[in-house]
Design brief:
Elements (H helix, E strand, L loop, with lengths): L2 H51 L21 E2 L19 E6 L7 H14 L8 E3 L5 E3 L17 E6 L10 H17 L7 E3 H5 L5 H5 L1 H18 L2
Parallel strand pairs: 1-4, 2-5, 2-6, 3-5
Antiparallel strand pairs: 3-4
Helix pairs in contact: 3-6
Pfam families: Amidase_2
EC number: 3.5.1.28
Catalytic activity: Hydrolyzes the link between N-acetylmuramoyl residues and L-amino acid residues in certain cell-wall glycopeptides
């Protein structure tokens, strides 16, 4: 091989070397670009997911239900602890209010309270109530609200009982009794975080005709519940 051929061969070898170098550089650049693209896509996906997870939660604000803070005036005249009318058993949870009527027309709240007291001596039956509302709207408390009363059968263990005096055999409450009942029931609903649906009749527990007028006249019972709700709306805070 002469010098000219050697120079040509060397030039071709150098050219091939440089070509390979450029190819390696291009391949390296492609790899780097692929890696960068992969990292970028991953970051975008993470950002989108994070954005979705961080979407603000719409807070629903529900206005607090009104409660009647002040009870009506009442006289506390508790029964003595005895097996027939005040067993002294703890009332651990109040889940309802049961409305009753006394079924003895013309009697007062005090007379009905004393009847319950007399059962401790006679033992003729088991009966009592947390509150008794008289014909003139007066209230006597017979049993503390943290003890059960013998008034509502299977619901004695989780309800407050209210007995209402009546003027005649119809069993309809006087206006004074009715108005006091609205106030007392509304206050108890707020005190124990109940709703109007937690106000029931003795009838709703056992099927007994009590309170008589408000069993025989279902519309009057529904009106009473509506009046209790209206009382809370008007006088609650």
């Amino acid at each position: 091989m002469n010098n000219t051929d050697k120079r040509r061969a060397g030039a071709r070898a150098l050219k091939r070397k440089r070509y390979k170098q450029r190819m390696y550089i291009r391949m390296a650049l492609v790899v780097v670009l692929v890696l960068i693209a992969g990292i970028t896509v991953e970051r975008i996906v993470k950002t989108v997911r994070a954005g979705q997870a961080a979407e603000p939660v719409v807070q629903e604000y529900v206005e607090d239900e009104k409660k009647v803070a002040d009870p009506p005036e009442y006289t506390v005249d508790l029964l003595t602890v005895n097996p027939y009318s005040r067993p002294g058993i703890a009332l651990e949870q109040v889940n309802g209010i049961v409305i009753h009527y006394t079924a003895n027309p013309g009697t007062t709240a005090k007379q009905n309270r004393d009847y319950f007291e007399g059962l401790s001596l006679s033992g003729e039956t088991s009966a009592s109530s947390h509150f008794v509302i008289g014909i003139d709207g007066e209230i006597v408390q017979c049993i503390p609200c943290n003890e059960i009363a013998y008034a509502s059968n299977d619901r004695n263990a989780d309800t407050i009982a209210i007995e209402c005096c009546i003027p005649d055999e119809t069993g309809r409450f006087t206006d004074a009794t009715y108005d006091t009942l609205l106030h007392l029931t509304a206050w108890l609903i707020g005190r124990y975080d109940l709703t109007i649906d937690d106000v029931i009749r003795h009838y709703d527990v056992t099927g007994k005709d009590c309170p008589k007028y408000y069993v025989e006249n279902p519309s009057a019972w529904e009106q009473m519940k509506a009046d209790i709700s209206a009382y809370i709306e008007k006088n609650g805070t």
